[in-house]
Amino acid sequence: MAKTKFPLFDTGAIIQYRREIQSSKNLISKMRLSMVVFYELTATTIDQSHLKLYENWRILFNQQGLLFTPTMLDWNETAKLIRRLRFGQKTASHGKTPKLNHAHELQNDALIARTSRLHDCYIVTTDVDDFSHFLPFMKKLEIVSADDFFN
């Protein structure tokens, strides 16, 4: 029997589709979140009511064991991935990749991608292009456009 995969939302998807997420108890019970996303939400939210909502979600997801925090190993493996992207290194199955000068800007997305793979989730994102950079290096990484997910 195949294991059910759950959606792991990135920051952009939560911001853009917050109302849809809030209104669906069924969706909230199935989704997963990364502490990296809560970092980004907390650091960028200027509205106090949204900050309180996100804090309540963080507590709820943590209590239910559905909030994933990167470990020391996750940080180390993500650093290696960013280095591979930055210098255009070879992959086992895709050959040499082009250099990606802005790879360091994808650190948080790379942590989210690693989290999704380790916890058997797929990523729901508004930044499909950014997450696609990881595909040659991460087997079984699944990316779904937030627009497709919600429509």
Order of helices and strands: EHHHEHHEHEEHEHEH
- CATH first level: Alpha Beta
Using only C-alpha atoms, the radius of gyration works out to 16 Å
State the domain count. 1
Largest sheet: 3 strands, parallel
Q: Helix- and strand-based class?
A: alpha/beta
- CATH architectural group: 3-Layer(aba) Sandwich
CATH topology call: Rossmann fold
Descriptive overview:
The chain is an alpha/beta fold and 151 residues long. The protein has helices at residues 11-16, 18-22, 25-30, 35-44, 48-63, 72-87, 107-118, 128-132, 146-150; strands at 6-9, 33-34, 67-68, 90-91, 95-96, 121-125, 143-145. The two termini are 28 Å apart. It has a single domain (6-150), classed as 5'-nuclease (Rossmann fold, 3-Layer(aba) Sandwich), CATH 3.40.50. The protein is globular.
Notable characteristics:
151 residues, alpha/beta, Rossmann fold, three-stranded parallel beta sheet, 13% strand, globular
Gist of the model:
By secondary structure, the protein is an alpha/beta fold. Helices cover 54% and strands 13% of the residues.
